Design the sequence.
């Protein structure tokens, strides 16, 4: 059965170029997705049971056909994007509002950088005012637990409630424990990765990279190339696909 939720990396281009990026995105990145084939593929998956698609990268706002794809998929399934927010102003912001995604999550990659934290908080509030549902992904490295805790509190004090924050543990390096994550979240229920407690396959989710390789999650090195852009092909490639722990 086709996964209910699919994450698609539109590109590995990202001008932010974080050293810990799981797909090594950089400012000279590329994409292998054409807009029309991407739309047709997602529509085919929707017919087979996919309920939601999330677009990431790289930086999805650096994918030239993002707004065309979002518009073509309106009403087909739930559409969300995850962005660093650096380009979310001017013409791109206007186009995003017109494309009207169902949700936008902005990432705080460096909780110790107050300017980034303030920018993302202000952008989330701006999206709210423009009628775009939004939230924050807060990356938590083990070496920065105290400042991540302070950042979490700052977000909450800005009026962005816990239901709109996703606490993401740093993967592959500097990884906090689930208990440390709970401390950052203030000891109250919080949203995070499904693999926070234990690495494992979820048949309801898969990740497809910018180069059209498929995996059970964005972090694992265990991938297979998608031979054709159909739901049947996706279902077939997921059969017996292993999951290699990213830690």
Sequence:
């Amino acid at each position: 059965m086709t996964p209910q939720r699919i994450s698609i990396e539109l590109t590995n281009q990202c001008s932010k170029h974080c050293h810990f990026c799981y797909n090594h995105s950089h400012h000279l990145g590329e994409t292998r997705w054409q807009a029309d084939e991407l739309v047709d593929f997602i529509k085919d998956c929707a017919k087979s049971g996919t309920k939601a698609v999330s677009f990431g990268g790289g930086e999805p706002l650096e994918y030239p056909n993002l707004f065309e794809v979002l518009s073509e998929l309106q009403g087909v399934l739930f559409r969300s994007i995850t962005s660093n927010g650096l380009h979310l102003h001017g013409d791109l912001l206007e186009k995003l509002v017109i494309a009207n995604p169902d949700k936008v999550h902005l990432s705080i990659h460096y909780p110790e950088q107050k300017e980034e934290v303030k920018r993302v908080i202000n952008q989330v509030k701006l999206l709210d005012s423009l009628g775009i549902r939004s939230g924050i992904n807060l990356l938590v490295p083990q070496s920065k637990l105290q400042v991540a805790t302070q950042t979490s509190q700052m977000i909450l004090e800005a009026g962005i409630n816990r239901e709109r924050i996703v606490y993401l543990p740093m993967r592959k390096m500097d990884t906090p424990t689930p208990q440390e994550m709970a401390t950052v979240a203030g000891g109250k229920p919080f949203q995070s990765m499904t693999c926070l407690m234990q690495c494992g396959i979820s048949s309801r989710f898969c990740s497809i990279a910018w180069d059209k390789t498929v995996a059970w999650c964005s972090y694992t090195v265990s991938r297979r190339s998608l031979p054709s852009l159909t739901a049947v092909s996706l279902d077939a490639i997921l059969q017996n696909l292993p999951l290699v722990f990213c830690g």
Observations:
- Residues 105-192 form one domain.
- The longest strand covers residues 134-140.
- DSSP finds seven helices and nine strands in the chain.
- The chain has a mean pLDDT of 94.
